[in-house]
From TrEMBL:
SUPFAM superfamilies: ATPase domain of HSP90 chaperone/DNA topoisomerase II/histidine kinase (SSF55874), CheY-like (SSF52172), Homodimeric domain of signal transducing histidine kinase (SSF47384). This is histidine kinase. The modification 4-aspartylphosphate is found at D58, D431. It comes from Paractinoplanes aksuensis. The lineage of its organism: Bacteria, Bacillati, Actinomycetota, Actinomycetes, Micromonosporales. Gene3D superfamilies: 1.10.287.130, 3.40.50.2300, Histidine kinase-like ATPase, C-terminal domain. Residues 153-363 form the Histidine kinase domain. It catalyses: ATP + protein L-histidine = ADP + protein N-phospho-L-histidine. It is found in: Cell membrane. Keywords: Kinase, Phosphoprotein, Transferase, Two-component regulatory system. SMART domains: HATPase_c, HisKA, REC. Residues 7-123, 381-496 form the Response regulatory domain. InterPro entries: CheY-like_superfamily, HATPase_C_sf, HATPase_dom, His_kinase_dom, HisK_dim/P_dom, HisK_dim/P_sf, Sig_transdc_His_kin-like_C, Sig_transdc_resp-reg_receiver.
Length: 497
């Protein structure tokens, strides 16, 4: 059957009439494939068999009433066009049938009217289906919206809890040392907390609640920097190679989100390679539009077309409950499209998959972010302002252990009091959303006294525009909660003069 062929089910007891109906449609240029049915059973069989696009039903059937056929058709597909054909039928009956959902009515001695009626019905059914699909999409996006709000609402508290768990676990692990009987237990807590933060972060990025901080990046640098963590993710039996095109134009995107996209692709590749294989990261420039692309190719089991068609759908997963959230590619899609780029999949069952992201080249030249190296022992005095007791304590302990002198305040008012009483500090580390005054306002206040005061913000999430005075300056260094102690120390070191 060709795609364009129209599946017509003619319900008629008379062979000649059925042939005539088929002819009248063919003569009008409609490419039809006609199936005939006489009884209810035959109608059922026909509807569940090959595709039926329109049902043409005779009104005077000996074996089954047209009304019953109509009910049968509607139960099968509420949008399927149904055209009634009859030698003679009372006006009243016709009106009844139309009310019951038959959409058109043609007299047998006026069969030239049939083809236009069928065409109109097909067109209208297509419109109805399109409408339904749009409504479904709208409902789906509304569902996702409220899900995002829900995620954002709990993510803040959840992140604080995770920061505390992971901070203490790290400290426990280090304190106990590898020789201790409980070392493995502490390590397990640390890893579980890290998985938890990974998941929250994925949810926050997916729901668009994590603020974007686009920067100028070289895809080659990002790919190279990620090589170590990627090969750790892929494991020993997967060979990772990179094929980088030199001199790529730079792109603008939030670095940590881009890394998350690449990480998601790598984890999918890992899952598609249960007994090992190869993953290749390629960068290149598309000649036609100058877009810069990065592709992650695996030699894994690939996807059948019906999986590939749904792979970007949020919560679509073939990994089973508890093993995959189905947010990996949906998140990747959101991040890349947000940054003005495109993302596509190319997959062949049994051969492998390529996930390709393309981003427009950046227009303005801005400094490329560089990685800072942190010295072994730190020094300096830091004022930590955070209203969440657990987070404040663990942050203070991490900083003290690294060698910093730490002063802690539970809110901006206390911080201002400390400074007023003569506290000297080399940097301010502050939460953003706090009671009374925001972290950004506090920073502004302190900078009236110390204009060059280095400030590092920490934040669980910001959902859209923050309440008055809480917007972050574009270049403000920001640490997302929950963070590993490593990130905290790196960020603090980076803002210090
Ligand atoms: N490289 C790949 N090879 C084969 N199938 C893939 C690949 N990438 C994605 N898929 C298919 O697409 C589905 C959706 O991927 P996605 O990353 O969105 O979610 P997931 O991997 O199932 O869950 P999560 O990312 O939360 O672990 C996967 O379940 C898998 O069936
Ligand atoms: Mg995934």
């Amino acid at each position: 059957m060709t795609v364009d062929q129209i599946g017509v089910l003619v319900v008629d007891d008379n062979d000649d009439d059925a042939v005539l109906i088929g002819h009248s449609l063919t003569r009008a240029g409609l490419p039809v494939r006609v199936t005939r049915a006489e009884t209810a059973d035959e109608v059922t069989a026909a509807l569940t068999g090959r595709r039926v696009d329109v049902v043409i039903c005779d009104y005077n059937l000996p074996g089954v009433r047209a009304e019953e056929v109509l009910v049968q058709v509607r139960e099968h597909d509420a949008d399927l066009p149904f055209v009634l054909v009859s030698g003679q039928v009372g006006e009243e009956t016709a009106a009844d049938l139309m009310r019951a959902g038959a959409r058109d009515f043609v007299l047998k001695d006026r069969l030239t009217r049939l083809a236009p009626a069928v065409q109109r019905e097909l067109h209208e059914a297509a419109e109805r289906r399109r409408h339904r699909r749009l409504e479904e999409q709208l409902r789906q996006s509304e569902r996702l919206d409220s899900l995002g709000q829900l995620a954002g609402g709990i993510a803040h508290d959840f992140n604080n809890i995770l920061a505390v768990i992971s901070g203490y676990a790290t400290m426990l692990t280090e304190e106990l040392g590898p020789g201790h009987a409980l070392h493995a237990d502490a390590l397990a807590i640390e890893q579980a907390a890290a998985r938890g933060s990974g998941l929250t972060r994925q949810l926050l990025i997916f729901s668009g609640l994590e603020p974007s901080r686009p920067e100028l990046l070289d895809l080659n640098v990002v790919a190279t920097d990620m090589q170590r963590v990627l090969s750790r993710t892929l494991g020993e039996d997967v060979e990772l190679s990179t094929m980088l095109s030199l001199n790529l134009p730079r792109i603008t995107i939030d670095r940590s989100k881009l890394e998350q996209v690449i990480m998601n692709a790598a984890m999918n590749a890992r899952a598609a390679l249960p007994s090992g294989g190869r993953v290749t990261i390629t960068t290149e420039v598309v000649r036609e539009n100058g877009h810069v692309c990065l592709a992650v190719t695996d030699t894994g089991h690939g996807m059948p077309p019906e999986v590939a068609a749904r792979a970007f759908e949020p919560f679509f997963t073939t990994k089973g409950r508890g093993r995959g959230t189905g947010l990996g590619l949906a998140t990747a899609y959101g991040v890349i499209v947000d940054a003005g780029g495109t993302i596509s999949l190319d997959s062949h069952p049994g051969q492998g998959t390529t996930l390709r992201i393309c981003l427009p080249p950046a227009e303005v030249a801005a400094p490329v972010s560089t990685l800072v190296r942190r010295p072994a022992a730190a020094s300096g005095s830091i004022l930590v302002v955070e209203d969440e007791d657990g987070v404040r304590d663990i942050v203070a302990r991490i900083l003290r252990r690294a060698g910093y002198e730490v002063h802690a305040a539970a809110d901006p008012a206390e911080a201002l009091r400390l400074v007023h009483d003569g506290l000297r500090m080399d940097a301010l580390l502050t939460d953003i959303i706090m009671p009374g005054m925001s972290g950004t306002q506090l920073a502004a206040e302190l900078r009236k006294i110390r204009p060059a005061l280095p400030v590092l913000f920490m934040s669980g999430y910001t959902s859209g525009p923050a309440p008055g005075g809480q917007e972050l300056p574009a270049d403000a260094p920001l640490l997302h909660k929950p963070f590993q102690s490593e990130n905290l120390l790196n960020a603090v070191h980076a803002v210090l003069p």
